[in-house]
Amino acid sequence: LFLFHQEVISEESEEESNGVNLMEFSDEILLHILSYVPCTDLVLNVRRTCRKLATLCLDKSLTHTVLLQKDYKVNKDKVKQLMRDIGREIYQLNMAGCYWLPSSTIDYVTWCKNLVKLNLSGCHVTSLRLSKMLSSLQHLRSLAIDVNPGFDASQLSSECKATLSRVSELKQTLYTPSYGVVPCCTSLEKLLLYFEILDRSREGFMLSGQLMVGESNVPHYQNLRIFYARLAPGYVNQEVVRLYLAVLSDRTPENLHAFLISAPGSFAETGATKNLLDSMARNVRLDALQLPKAWINGSGLLQHLKFNNPFYFSFSRCTLSGGHLIQRVINGGKDLKSLTSLNLSGCVHCLAPESLFRKAEDDIDSSILESLVVSCCNLRHLNLSAAHHHSSESIGNHLCQLLSRLKHLLSLALPVCSITDVGASVEKPPSTPNLVPQTFGRKVRIGVQTYPRNLGDQTNQKIESSVFWALMGSLRFLETLEIIGSSFSSAMPRNEPAIRNSLPPCVRAQSVGDSEVAAISQLTYLQSLTLAQLPNILTGSGLVNIGLQCQHLRTLSLANLGMMGKVVYMSALMDMLKHCKCLRDLRLEQPYFCAGAQFFQALSHCSSLQRLCIVSRSGTLQSDAVMSFMASCLEVIMCHMFMGESLTVCKNLQQSIVRSFQAERPALNVVIFPLLHEDLTEVIRDVPMRHLDEITLFKSRVAEEPPNLWW
């Protein structure tokens, strides 16, 4: 906006300038540049600078689709003005996660008479407001909403139901047992369901999975092509999703080509679900599949299911062996070029010929991985985390060497023990300073070797000849990378108290440290990086290389690096942060982390930072430093800190931040709370789902869902 303003002034004054005048560019180039400017800025600010921009900013290519989902500066007044100015030109509107906007803001959506696609996930919408809004949107075909306690389908008008009857795509997030608007959507082709129902109310009462009175209407699935359900932990979510599936088990849609259910923990198969799967095996050919592990383990289901041109498979946490994977899914190693996304997270035997007599720590069968790589040569997203994938000493058959053939990979998740060189891993483990204590214990002062900060200063050429270094060099266009310890578990699980002890890292992972982190700096286009439970981090010098070379990095998550009793990489982290100008999300999980003045001063260099989350058992913070950081980093709208400070200190700091910055930052969400406090789960439940799901809770996100499942 500033650059446009300056150019306009320069043009009007007719003064010679050494720079390029933007207004001399063609309309096509200017429209491309303007496409990167938030729509609210285009309509409310940029178009008022000159006549030419006034015309271009209202071009259909810029107003057809309006994205407000991460425009954290937008408020009710801006939405009102935006809808008033271009409402009739908007065909797609995404307001997902705009939790800070009052529910009355939704009333302005009624001005968008030509809307075809609308996403209100995470917005406050009552039954009556939803009814009024949908009654005026006769062209709507795609809708995403939340169903909260108090939702009453009987309040939906006949005009609203008429609109819903034409909707072919529905995404519904449930916070209460309900069918929501599903029974009204008689033309559904795509149904996405997110179950976020808690087992207990705030008052401590157990909730039931039975639907509310008046919700006995039956969903209409006859035209369904895509069915997706993601369940948060809890038995109530399982009870409710079974009610949705009951209709499918009676009659399986003939055009169904994607059937996906993501369920944590144990989700037992019933007679109804077995009938559903048998019907699917007889009547449909799938392109995408994900099932609860209990539905696949020990069954011959995969042998009978038929696939057309599959693009997504997820067998997360299943006991599927590599032999079954090759024979039943990849058709004995035949061509499967259509597959672009594969999630094998937690499949401990997926790279072994059989699982009956195999230990999880045994070496993988490289021929299985080679068949996978050859058959699925167009994979873009691959998740092999949460398992021990140990390569043998066979030359040329290391996991990293085989994966380097997948030239189209955009995102990759690997266990730490899979990236170590076999020669290094079978040698005697490093001396005591290099090992991670298996329990937290007391702080111990240990001298560590000083590593050079810049890669070019390193004289040890063995680093650049490692298999992981070669892998990183071959995946030049990788955008997301996760390296997670196979036994790592976050101190912040979803619906239970914080974990107080962590499991020790895999023995094969003991040598993974600074040099492997330095190898990641070859990924020039890296946007998201997760590193968890790397035991041999001594100084964190590799982080500096990443900060210097990976200039597109937007998301960084670091957890349990090096020794658990001391943050050995703090100096390197602060050096790294000074170079991360594009960083927007930062999550740190490390015991004894000191969030003090020096750390926040370094973090202040991240001028684009929007969200910060720190999880630290026995960690400390300096309130003055936090306040100074919030004052200097104007884009920060989320600050979550779960430390070892007292409840009083946490509450006082949280109140100070909210009081000082809430007025200027309408989307500001602040949670500062003792990590081990018994009320942590109650605090977590009030965090907006966007932040909770994307950053606060630790999880592997590679191939978590099919690509382009929704917007």
UniProtKB/TrEMBL annotation:
GO cellular component: SCF ubiquitin ligase complex
Domain F-box: 19-66
Top-rank taxon: Eukaryota
One of the GO BP terms on file: SCF-dependent proteasomal ubiquitin-dependent protein catabolic process
InterPro entries attached to this UniProt entry: F-box-like_dom_sf, F-box_dom, FBXL18_F-box, FBXL18_LRR, LRR_dom_sf
SUPFAM superfamilies attached to this UniProt entry: F-box domain, RNI-like
Protein name: FXL18 protein
Gene designation per UniProt: Fbxl18
